[in-house]
Amino acid sequence: MKTQNVLIVIVLMAASGVLTANTVLEERLSTYAKNSGSSFSSQQGKDLWFKEFHDAETGKQRSCTSCHTKDATRGGKHAKTGKAIDPLAPSVNHERFTDAKKIEKWFKRNCKWVMGRECSDQEKGNFLSYLRSL
Amino acid sequence: MKVFLVLLFGLLSGSLAFADDDHERNEAKGFAVNDNVYLQECGSCHLAYPPQLLDKKSWQVIMQSLDKHFGDNAEMDKALATQISRFLEGNAASSGFSRRSHNSASGRITETSFFRHEHDELSPRHVAQNPEVKSLANCSACHRRAKVGSFRESEIRIPGFGRWDD
User: Fold this and answer.
1) Is the dihedral of CA B139, B143, B148, B152 positive or negative?
2) How many Å lie between the alpha carbon of B78 and the closest alpha carbon of chain A?
3) A56-93 pLDDT, tens per residue?
4) Do B72 and A58 touch (CB under 8 A)?
5) For A16, how many CA atoms within 13 A lie in the half-sphere containing its CB?
6) How far is B73 from chain A (nearest CA, A)?
């Protein structure tokens, strides 16, 4: 019994080691898919990524690229403070999309800042599919 | 009664002003931030500002309006915000210094009287018209070791102007 428990623990640990490669990203995608009942399009993600929204208060155009730039495989720069932002594409930055809470926190802030509303699960799935394809 | 209060206030602020100069020297040293949660949550869009540069009340103003944060949206879940508030209030400007680090109107450090006093020799060409600085809130553009909490005069380099000698 005891050895069996130890074995289970070892197997679980090994599995989680492999899984952290990027299970968080997979888990997010499958949760969005379940909630929205649809599959995702990296093209639609790309279109929304580049789409400009007018901000009435400042009179300026805003998009995801305002801070993350047009090339998400490169570093960005915060539009207001100028602080450097590491690349968002997981192919060049393995630390990206490894914490579900962090992903949701930034989707909430950034979608509201750019589009004036939160993103739907469909849109989040499209964004992540696009960023993963880079 | 009213007269008494005014007098009392005058006396108090007088004695505080007297102590200010020494205080500034002390307060301006050693602003290292060691709290990892604070560094991560409040250091992602700008320098994680030293908590000692604002008094308790002003930090409360900031923390209560994170969804409308100087033209940005910095909202976070309540538990996290509470944890950070505790850290900020626990390390806020000491009571002798709080009058000069108070700004509950906007919450900007850069508008407190201490900050204004320290930066009164700067002109727009150093800051607003300087593409590498843009804003006074961009501490590390000039204070090269701001990240480790050091704001010493000898470490100041203003982009395009160089070393600061006054």
Assistant:
1) negative
2) 12
3) 989 999 999 999 999 999 999 999 898 899 999 999 99
4) no
5) 6
6) 5
Least CA distance to B78: which residue of chain A?
A: A105
Q: What percent of chain A has pLDDT over 90?
A: 77
Q: How far is CA B98 from the centre of its chain?
A: 11
Whether A105 sits inside 8 A of B45 (CB atoms) is no
A102 vs B: CB within 8 A = no
Closest chain A residue by Cα to residue B67: A109
Average pLDDT along chain A: 88
Q: What is the pLDDT of residue A6?
A: 56
For the stretch B55-108, pLDDT in tens is 999 999 999 999 999 999 999 999 999 999 999 999 999 877 777 888 888 899
- CA-based radius of gyration for chain A: 18
**DSSP letter assigned to residue B93:** P
**Rounded to two decimals, what is the model's pTM?**
0.85
Residues 34-53 of A with CB under 8 A from B: none
Where do runs of H (alpha helix) occur along chain B?
Answer: 2-27, 36-42, 56-63, 78-90, 113-118, 139-142
Distance CA B98, CA B101 (A): 5
Chain A residues closer than 8 Å to B73 by CB: 109-110, 112-113
C-alpha gyration radius of chain B = 17
